[in-house]
Design a protein that fits this description.
Elements: H1 21-28, E1 32-36, E2 39-42, H2 44-63, E3 67-68, E4 74-76, H3 77-83, H4 85-88, E5 94-97, E6 103-106, H5 111-121, E7 130-139, E8 154-164, H6 167-187, E9 192-196, E10 207-213, E11 219-223, E12 230-232, E13 254-257, H7 264-271, E14 279-286, E15 289-296, H8 303-310, E16 315-317, H9 320-327, E17 345-349, E18 358-361, E19 367-372, H10 374-377, E20 385-386, E21 405-419, H11 421-425, E22 429-431, E23 437-439, E24 441-448, H12 449-459, E25 461-462, E26 465-466, E27 477-481, H13 487-502, E28 507-510, H14 516-526, E29 530-534, H15 536-540, E30 544-548, E31 557-559, H16 561-577
Parallel strand pairs: 3-7, 15-17, 17-20, 27-28, 27-29
Antiparallel strand pairs: 1-2, 4-6, 5-6, 7-8, 8-24, 9-10, 10-21, 11-12, 11-21, 13-19, 14-15, 14-16, 18-19, 21-24, 22-23, 25-26, 29-30, 30-31
The protein binds zinc ion.
Length: about 575
């Protein structure tokens, strides 16, 4: 392919709304262009990479025995009402009406559509197990689209759904997909690590997210380098030490004035103590009902854990009127000892079990209590102690006790055991060999295809631009033709292009009438894995220059034109094997 025949436009300036490198490079290298907030057009270069990622996904799905279909983006409301998600999906789902006033959604996912299809087509155990998938555009009405393709309103996703006769089969389907995902990301040149994630309120809770580790990632992940434990921060647990909370000596509770000191830090500074001497108490509304949550003063409440523990649909910090009514004080001075509403449920982090000698809010503005023994002074049921906090760097691994580290990740895929949540709602059943009816067991599996494109860039770039892995590069080789007007030189480039294409290598020839510096800069910015420089001067000195994008100038090889195709093919082969 000749550069002058393609629609490639690189930009000098970073886009104003880009906060992370991969977003800047996506636009500057001419892979995509913003159409509106959270909406992108994929330009020819970006489209080539996107198609290669899709193809890898497709090959690995097919290899795992899944079958490709395609279902409509426009999904009827009835399907979503069957599972109740028409109402619970909230404002993230795009909803619209047709001219007949029938309601539809622009699919953010497709569990309902696929379950309904399976119900209509599957009736016997003989047809199971089956996994079906699609690669389709999905929609999400993001409040704040950002990071380019990472958090956009429209994105390309591969979603697969497995249907099995029993839990054992569902387990097998799950791990088959898990292994397919490992292969997909490896083939895309990505180091993606599987981490345990929160199962949400969806049936069986086994789920793994695949994360590309990057400082720009939006998700926090706890890792144990000792035993390999890895979990999303929403889910990650820690080993709580015995006597983690220094014990008091049975002194009586004492009220102390702490005027204008509202935050733990302020009170701690006022009293000359460290935050972990405190119990932080917050009033939440769980599905509209107030509940007090107590955690160690130096820790944060994990809303996801709290929500699951309370079995609530939603939890949020209570408004100040509710806080005042429930405790008798304003936020900052509330605590678990004798709140105004004696019936207020109090739950506490498990690490506070047996805590004594603590400082808590006095449920009276401008006062705290010291020498508090939670078991003695607060009404917290044994069953209301639970893991309610988010782990921090240095916390003990729940399995081996070694200190954990926290890293950032970009989620590029997730495998999920759904159980019967959707199949039961649709009454999607099969008949066993005794003609008894059973509900099918499901799993769902997503890969963010467009997000993977940008994750590759985030993981593989330098100050000059993108460094594509050959498997998903827009073109694997760029031939920089330095003297396009010289017929003899152009012929060398053309022959090399033909020889490489004959071997199935994607080649672009930069035949623009530009200075060499401009061509080298663009080749580095776009990040073609191998660059070949063909120019009159080089040929006079015996050859063409071959260099990987990932190598510096000193690694340049001078190769006779006749050997160039082989030299390039060898480099690509080496990289593919690495
Ligand atoms: Zn460990």
């Amino acid at each position: 392919m000749k550069w002058t025949k393609t629609l490639i436009q690189t930009l000098r300036e970073n886009p104003g709304d880009a906060e992370i490198d991969s977003h800047k490079l996506l636009i500057r290298a001419g892979l995509a262009r913003k159409v509106a907030g959270g909406l992108y057009a994929y330009l020819p270069l970006g489209m080539r990479s996107l198609k290669k990622i899709q193809q890898i996904v497709r090959e690995e799905m097919d290899r795992a025995g899944a079958q490709e279909i395609v279902s409509p983006i426009l999904q009827p409301a009835e399907l979503w009402r069957t599972t109740g998600r028409w109402d619970t999906m909230g404002p993230n789902m795009f909803k619209l009406r047709d001219r007949g006033e029938h309601e539809f959604a622009l699919g953010p996912t497709a569990e309902e559509v696929f379950t309904d299809l399976a119900k209509g087509m599957i009736s016997s155990y003989r047809q199971l197990p089956v996994t079906i998938y699609q690669i389709q555009w999905k929609f999400r009405d993001e409040t704040r689209p950002r990071f380019g393709l990472m958090r956009s309103k429209e994105f390309l996703m591969k979603d697969a759904y497995s249907f099995d006769v029993d839990a054992e089969g569902a387990d097998k389907s799950y791990w088959t997909m898990y292994r397919a995902y490992e292969r997909i990301f490896a083939r895309c040149g990505l180091k993606a690590v599987p981490v345990q994630a929160d199962g949400g309120d969806m049936g069986d809770s086994l789920t793994h997210e695949f994360h590309v580790l990057a400082d720009a990632g939006e998700d926090g992940i706890a890792f144990c380098e000792g035993c390999g434990y890895a979990a999303n921060l929403e889910k990650a647990e820690r080993k709580v030490g015995n006597g983690e909370w220094g014990m008091g000596n049975g002194e009586a509770v004492e009220e102390i004035p702490t005027p204008n000191a509202k935050t733990i830090e302020e009170v701690a500074a006022f009293m000359g103590l460290s935050p972990d001497a405190f119990v932080k108490s917050l009033v939440y509304l769980a599905d509209g009902k107030p509940v007090m949550v107590c955690v160690p003063g130096d820790r944060d409440v994990n809303d996801v854990k709290l929500k699951h523990f309370l079995g609530a649909k939603a939890v949020a910090l209570a408004d100040f009127g509710t806080v005042l009514a429930a405790t008798g004080a304003n936020a900052g001075f509330v605590g678990p000892v004798r709140p105004a509403d004696a019936s207020l449920r109090i739950v506490a982090d498990v690490s506070l079990k047996g805590a004594s000698g603590r400082i808590v809010g006095a449920n009276k503005d401008d006062f705290h209590l010291k020498n508090v023994d939670l078991a003695r002074d607060a009404k917290i049921a044994d069953a209301d102690y639970a893991d309610l906090t988010t782990v921090k760097a240095g916390d003990a691994c729940p399995h081996c006790g070694r200190p954990m580290v926290i890293k950032r990740g970009i989620e590029v895929g997730q495998v999920f055991k759904l159980g019967t949540k959707y199949s039961a709602a649709f009454n999607a059943t099969y008949k066993n060999d005794k003609l008894e009816e059973h509900i099918m067991i499901m799993g769902c599996y997503g890969v963010g295809v467009s997000r993977t494109l940008q994750a590759v860039i985030e993981q593989s770039h330098d100050k000059d631009g993108i460094v594509w892995p050959a498997s998903v590069a827009p073109y694997q080789v760029c031939i920089c033709l330095l003297d396009p007007a010289d017929a003899g030189v152009a012929k060398v480039a053309e022959d090399l292009e033909a020889a490489l294409e004959a071997q199935g290598v994607d080649v672009i020839v930069d035949d623009r009438a530009e200075r060499p510096g401009v061509k080298f800069k663009d080749a580095d910015l776009i990040g073609f894995p191998v660059r070949v420089v063909v120019g009159a001067k080089g040929l006079a000195n015996g050859g063409v220059e071959v260099k990987r994008r990932s190598e510096d100038k000193s690694a340049t090889r001078i190769v006779a034109p006749a050997d160039a195709a082989q030299a390039v093919a060898d480099l690509l082969k080496e990289d593919a094997g690495a």
